[in-house]
Amino acid sequence: MDFLLDVLSDSRQVSSRKMFGEYCLYYAGRPVGLVCDEQLFLKTSPEVLRLVKDPSYGAPFPGARPHLLVGPDDWDDRTLLNRLVRAVFESLPPPKTAATAQKTPSAKTAKAAKAGTGATAKGVTRIADLPNLGPKSQAMLATAGISTLAQLRKLGAVAAYVQVRSQSPRASLNLLWALEGALSDTPWQVVAREHRTSLLLALEQHGAAAKAAKAGQRSTP
Asked: Which CATH class is domain 98-219?
């Protein structure tokens, strides 16, 4: 990572953060790729691919969408690598905060509600009636003090997962996928495949915010 960050130092806006044993690469504070198993995986777009003659693709983790794969042998090309990360950054959609993502219903959920289908339209009022959440998940939520659907919706998937982990440290990330899927009426497998990175980043941000708040409380006389 030190070598890669040195190569990308020409951009002056590149940074990294260790995340679940691997690394997330940022440009101007926004995620542009992942470094897993000593390989660089960049988000793809037509603008990015135009810069590469013979692109190779790979998945940073099982089930992930294909990324542009840049092996260590190509990390010496400073000019190309800096152009690639800038191109990825410029092709990203407008930023969306974690709080907004949790409170704003997905397009699929909104469409389902409008059409009279989906969990919300069916008048679901209990956690037990949500998809993805079996008896074990419901028991962990109850242990963490989350016993109503209103509480779960207010917290959102990430905050609810953190609250569960505080009481049940062995709760796996599958619960996070299941919670997000339950609230958005999406199969947890789809969440794990398509929204994994954004949820992990939101989880990291939640942890960082909690640490900052705790540090502020300690410094207050």
From this structure: mainly alpha
